[in-house]
Amino acid sequence: MQLNGDIMGGSAANKMPLLVGGKRVDGRGVEDLRNIKIVARVLNDADGSAYIEWGKNKILAGVYGPSECIPRHDQSLYRAVVKCRYSMAPFSGMEEHGRSGPNRRSKELSKVIKEAFENVIVSENFPKTQIEVYLEVLQSDGGTRCAAVTAAAVALADAGIPMKDMINAVAVCKIDGEMAVDPGKEEDNFGESDMPIAFSPRTGEVLLFQMDGLLTKDELERGFSLARSASDKIRQLQVDAIKKVYDEPREERFLVISK
Amino acid sequence: MPGELLLDRPERISYAFVDNGKTYSTVVGLYHEGKLVPLEGPYEPLPEDYIVGIVNEVKFSGYSVDINAPFPAYLSSREIRERYAMSDTILAKIALVDEVRSIELVDAKKLPAGRLVKVSSVKIPRIIGKKNSMIDMIKAATTCDIFAGRNGYVWITGSGNATLAEKAIRMIEAQAHTKGLTDRVSVYLKEAKQ
């Protein structure tokens, strides 16, 4: 998305620097993630659920299934079908999202997220069924697809759906010629390049990889190593979120809004 | 945790998989002495399981029954002498589960009026307890009749304190993975009675 520059100081010639003395616009270093908070099991009627706050992103994930696959022409006799719907709330913050509902962007993201999870879910156990993953972006601030993948993995684990790994995703970007991890909205819009990657932490496999802009081979490798170490940190947060469900059992499930 | 290493050697364990000569978990569960017990998950129907089901379709020669599994179950009219209507609750035994996960039921019996508590099927062994200890305790304390189906549907009936029975079951569901649960439930039931 390209804004016409009013917010961030005009044309490319006089654009605001994104990196000054190793510090980024929000005061982070190049290897720092934004503040991430994950809560698992927040919905009563979903089989599994999770809520994530990743910087200013707020995303709710709900998982249903495996259940009988409807419509039946989607069924597979050999495995469960994974369905994913990523959608942004009309109030989620990006300017052109005046109305919610499927659009080109959300359909693309639903597809890439679905394909990432098809690689890890042990779907052979449940022929003729479907597993539904619903991702609702309540507030967006750059990097929602990565936050959505991270939350969805926790929700799937909470639902008890067998997976070969609990995956997560993180983006890297190039700002003012330097590679940095987890771009915020400004860095995403005004940086030179942006590259979301989803990893399977167990094997190191890449399950989702997209790129905007251009990078050299060295920059790409530097980006991957940044993303990998960030991914390990996120995995720990996911594990902690699941553990908390069992360490502090609650009879009612509800969403706790953070202070 | 999904993807967590269990063993450095390949071994067949349910809810686990082998990759590159090592065994990994696929679910959130507790691993102890070669056995992985999932803490959450869908009901996987097995023959001989006694289940509580809800009739959701009356067909020409039988009934389609919701048994909380990913697959619908079928109860043939040949196997039963009663007639059911939609939304009747029945107790039945699973006779057969085939390769494409068609499920056939036998030994069906209509359950008397009561209330249904839906819990996760993996918590049912805890609700029943060792040698029925937990469920007998709840039955005695509330004077309700309780049928805990292996599929996660629990039917509470009779003239007793069904609300208390439901609360006790919810408590067990939330704390199923902890130790000393029978004692805590016993204390809870005693306190609630007073």
Q: Overview of this structure, please?
A:
The complex is a heterodimer of chains A (259) and B (194). Chain A is an alpha+beta fold. Helices cover 26% and strands 29% of the residues of chain A. In chain A, helix 1 packs across helix 2 (144-158) and helix 2 (144-158) runs parallel beside helix 4 (217-247). The radius of gyration of chain A is 19 Å and the shape is globular. Chain B is built from four helices and 13 strands. The chains are: A alpha+beta (259), B alpha+beta (194). Chain A binds chain B through residues 47-48, 65-68, 77, 80, 120, 122, 125-129, 157-166, 200-203, 239, 242, 246, 249-251, and chain B through 1-3, 15, 17, 19, 24, 26-28, 38-42, 44, 70-72, 100-101, 120, 122, 170-171, 173-175, 177-178.
Attribute tags:
heterodimer; A: alpha+beta; Ribosomal Protein S5, domain 2; five-stranded mixed sheet; five-stranded antiparallel sheet; globular; disordered N terminus; B: 194 residues; alpha+beta; OB fold (Dihydrolipoamide Acetyltransferase, E2P)
Largest interface chains and counts: A-B, 35 and 30 residues
In spatial order, strands of the major sheet of chain A run 3-4-5-7-6
How many structural domains of chain A? Answer: 1
Low-confidence stretches of chain A: 1-10
Tell me the overall shape of chain A.
Answer: globular
Oligomer: heterodimer
Output the structural class of chain A. Answer: alpha+beta
- Any guess at the CATH architecture of the largest domain in chain B? 2-Layer Sandwich
Highest-level CATH class of the largest domain in chain B: Alpha Beta
Assigned CATH class of chain A:
Alpha Beta
> Could you give the count of β-strands of chain A?
12
Could you estimate the helical fraction of the residues of chain A in percent? Answer: 25-40%
**What's the order of the H and E elements of chain A?**
EEEEEEHEHEEHEEEH
How large is the radius of gyration of chain B?
19 Å
Provide the residue-averaged pLDDT of chain B.
Answer: 89
